[in-house]
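User: Sequence in, structure out. Go.
Assistant: Echoing your sequence, followed by the structure tokens.
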Amino acid sequence: MPSETSLTLLAILALYNVVVFCVYAWDKLAAQNGDWRIREDTLLGLAFFGGGAGAFLCQRLMRHKTRKPPFRVALPVLFILQTVIIGVAVLAPGPALAAIRSTLTIFRGF
């Protein structure tokens, strides 16, 4: 059973993904109305830093950024990768923390 900390982090991540979904939806509406748009690197950054689910869901539901190669490739990959990472972190927190520690140890050597 996930700890209270895990549930809190999942709730924060879910809220972040709702925000990312709204940002993508706002950009879609701006595109339709000819209004000011959000930079593509900003949209990809939001997806990269934990918002893959919100970005991917908006892409599918609102048909936004479906033709642009970076979005067509990156969003499904980020969604799958982030879902797997979250699943491992929730279901096996001990091995997940060990993997994070060993990764950080490797990067300290550079």
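User: And one key feature?
Assistant: The mean pLDDT is 92.
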